[in-house]
Amino acid sequence: MAETVSYINNYVKIYVWKLAAYIAGFASLAIVTPRVTSSAALFGIFSFCMSLNIFFQYADLGFINAAQKYASEYYGRRDQDGEIRVTGFCCFIFTLFIVPVSLFILWISFYPELMIKGISSSPEELQLASRLLLVLFLFSPVLIAQRIIQIIFAVRLEDYYPQRINIIVSLIRIASVFYFFGNGRYLLFEYFLFFNLLTIGAILANIIIAKKRYNYSFLYLLKCCRFSKELYNKTSKLAYNSFFLSLSWIIFYELDLLYIGYFLGKNEVAYYAIGLTLLRFFRDAFGTFYYPFVIRFNHMVGRNENDALSNLYKTLLRIGAPITVIPSVAMIVLMKPLILSWVGPDYENSIFVAQVLATSFLLSFITYPAGALLTAREQLRKLYLNATIQPLIFMIGVLATQHFLGISSYALFKSLAIQVNVFLFILYSARYLNMSLVSFFNRYMRQLIPSVLFIIGFGYLAGKLIHAQKGLYSLITVGICLSVSVLCAFTIYYFVDVEFRNFLKSTLGRLMKKDKQQIA
């Protein structure tokens, strides 16, 4: 029980600091984005160039994900030597493959007109694209250090330490906007360069924390940053599976702006980027919620705690349902006033796209834990099936319809592919829990109906009353309406779902008991 309470405390700390980070992130969206988007063409170029960063994120061929899984298992067995060795090996693989990606970005920086439709006639646009891509190339080694920091803190379920540093970075970033975008200035390149310099400072701070708190030997990590046949044999199967999943993820989630920039142009990139920004906000928020539990899945698999794994999975489905469904529905219903007050009527084309993209996360309480469970149990065939279906539906649909649906086709077929994936994960979950589909719906989804109906009604009335126009006051008004609808819907769910209510009371009771023991 002591260990369970300890992990609950870690979960709470992660969520508290991540919530603070998201408040800072929301402030960034409210203050930074309206200034950055004042020129749709330049913002489209900026968004396109930033999307190329994804090639760095997945240059490890899946070995970083494998490193995190096995490092978690080593940590669960209190084997720091094994943890550092597997981390060093996988960072070596990452370093090996990041070089050609960096060179590709460097080459593109000299010929950006080959990648972005319609910028060859503007020297200003060409120069901006070239300089942004050059910064991506120069700062690519920073990603290796970021991955190491991520693994070190994540396997210990103490991500809240780097989160504190990230909050400081976000606040400095917000403050800098008034210098880079104000009084006639529109310094996108300088802003991006400054942000990357802040990232280096954050990494150095996290290294100092890890050294002092865990006595982590970075010198030994550097010695372990080499090829090991033993570790290759151990990690390669899961790594290549992870790489296949990552490749599928890249094609499906991360290249939209590249496709749109190449086929449709820079303005369409800007319109789609607004919806994509909100989608990534959802993805980061839900990913943060489930991330500690993914690590716990690996701990339990490493210790062969099958019953505990099954019980945790049931709990995640129960508590995750309102946490993912309610905010998603609220955002969809109030999307129009949100976008009009956030970036103005020039981005009205973004409203439908953003609404459709938001539907992708309605049932995230199923996809996140189900995907983590399959990965932890190394059920690779099921993962391959899901990873193949999504990009196929998306690419076939987009190629067939983008010439007459435009950017809407990207949102529509992305959402359709995700809903197919959701259905497959429901089948997997019901089979794992030995339940019928009807029983699964009654147990985990039916209780949401009253809350969803309330949000739809409240959002309809609020949408009629709000006269949205670009500005902070109007954005705050929409934010208050969103918050009220979500809080009221959660209150309704709290009284409708007895198991959810009992879980919250039990968890709060254990936390309070732990605090009293610490005081005593």
UniProtKB/TrEMBL annotation:
It is found in: Cell membrane. Keywords: Cell membrane, Membrane, Transmembrane, Transmembrane helix. The keyword DNA damage does not apply. The chain crosses the membrane at residues 12-33, 39-59, 86-108, 128-153, 165-182, 188-209, 238-264, 270-294, 315-339, 351-371, 383-405, 411-428, 448-466, 472-496. It is a multi-pass membrane protein. InterPro entries: MATE_fam, Poly_Biosynth_Transport. This is Lipopolysaccharide biosynthesis protein.
